[in-house]
Structures are given as C-alpha cells and as structure tokens.
Write a structure and sequence with these properties.
Rossmann fold; two-stranded antiparallel sheet; about 35% helix; seven-stranded mixed beta sheet
Length: about 250
C-alpha cells in the first residue's frame, strides 16, 4: 500500500509540475509583444488559462487549430507547443499566417490542408468547406474556437469527419461557440450562433463521444436574442464549451 501511495504521489507531482509549466508558458505568451491591446482586452472574457486547462492541453501534444482567424489563440498555442510538441493551423489560415510571419518563436507553425477552401456559395447563408483532409492521423487535440457556426450542415459534417480522421484514438476535439436557443430556426439575429444540442448530435454522428462540458463561458446576461455583434452582447456572448473524444 505504501508503495502504491508513493507511486500515486509521484504521478500527482509530475501532473502538477506539467500543469505549472504550461501555465508559465501561457503566461509568457499572454505577455508577448506580438499581442496588441485589443487582443489583451479579450483575455478576461475568453479565459484562455482556464479553457486550455479544461481541455487538457499538454506542451508535448500534436495539436491543430482550425480556422484561426486573426490568430488570437494561435499566438498562445504556438509558444506553448514550440519546444516539446507540434502545432498546426488549418482552414482559412491567411490572416493568422500574416499575423505571425517573421515573428520570433513562430517558425515551427505548420499549415495543414493548404488546398482547403472556406467559401460562401452564391445566395447561401453559411459557408462551405472543400478539400478538408488534414492528411494526418496521429493528432492529440484539435481546437476550433467560435467557428462551428460559420458552416452549413454539409460544411460542419465535412469538418467533423476530417477531424475524426486526423485524431488518434483517444484524441480530443475541443469546440467552443456562441449559443443559440435550442430548436430555434434561422433568423436575422442568430446566424453566428449554434444550438449546442445540435452540435453534440452532429459531432457524435461523426463517431465522437462527448466526455465533458464546462460553464466557463456561460453568460446569463446574454438572452440569446441579439446578433453576436450587437452592442449589448458583443464580447460577452453566452458560449458552450464541449470536449469530445475519438473512440
């Protein structure tokens, strides 16, 4: 019994040390000069420290971020993973690539699915995704932050399928997006919101299992009636935070 407790104590120490190391790396990344004032202001709302801890990020993982936008999370993930892990971005990466190009410490960021195409078909409300194959099958974790809402059903299915193929067994699919009221049809105010129940169904249909959720981004002041950019909710939208695992 004493031997077992000693082993468990050592494991706990290692896990704690890893968490502390990642926390320190993230703190340094958050204080980097590459981040502008507008990005720093979002820290309090987006809670990157708590969010990445919830999803279980380790600095030796192989990680992919989908649709990185202007690189808000890219600027945090790349430094954490640079020395011990592997970090890639995919789908609509142009703005993020421009933001980190030539910046010290970002030389190891990979671009996956370079021929993929994110576009809005004529007269369509949502985007489509062509050529989504990530050409890998040993990824530990895939992130997508506030992007699931961009796609129609076919685009979401294509992305979920590509993520499933890219992850190794037990790999994590980490998804955060703006909340839409359950079962609410499309209207002029909810196009950038997603019903979390629908998202769970779609992602499970791709083969994943839901393993956890977090209320980190629950915002009771958001009544789910305004468009995401509306002055009363912008920067404070209610968001669901879901953690899936490849079976």
């Amino acid at each position: 019994m004493k031997k077992w407790l000693t082993v468990m104590g050592c494991v706990g120490f290692v896990v704690g040390a890893q968490a502390a190391d990642i926390s320190a790396k993230l703190q340094r990344a958050m204080q980097s000069d590459i981040r502008d004032e507008s990005e720093i202001k979002r820290d309090a709302n987006r809670k990157p420290m708590e969010t990445l801890a919830f999803f279980g990020l380790q600095d030796d993982m192989k990680v992919v971020e989908l649709i990185p936008g202007g690189g808000w999370y890219t600027k945090l993930l790349a430094p954490i993973l640079r020395d011990n892990g592997d970090f890639s971005i995919a789908y609509g990466t142009e703005r993020a690539e421009k933001a980190i190009k030539g910046q010290e410490g970002f030389d190891k960021v990979n671009i996956l699915a370079p021929t993929s195409k994110v576009y809005r078909p004529e007269n369509a409300a949502f985007y489509a995704l062509d050529n989504p194959d990530l050409a890998t099958s040993d990824v530990d974790m895939v992130f997508t932050f506030r992007n699931y809402h961009n796609f129609g059903p076919e685009g979401r299915a294509a992305m979920n399928e590509a993520v499933y193929k890219a992850l190794k067994p037990g790999g994590i699919y980490a998804v955060v997006d703006h909340t839409r009221r359950h079962m609410q049809p499309n209207n002029d105010f909810n196009g950038r919101r997603v019903d979390p129940v629908l998202a769970i169904k779609e992602i499970q249909d791709a083969g994943f299992e839901l393993v956890d959720y977090s209320d980190l981004h629950y915002r009771p002041v958001d009544e789910l009636i305004y468009e995401v950019g509306h002055k009363d909710v912008t920067g404070h939208t209610d968001r669901w935070t879901l953690k899936f695992r490849k079976k």
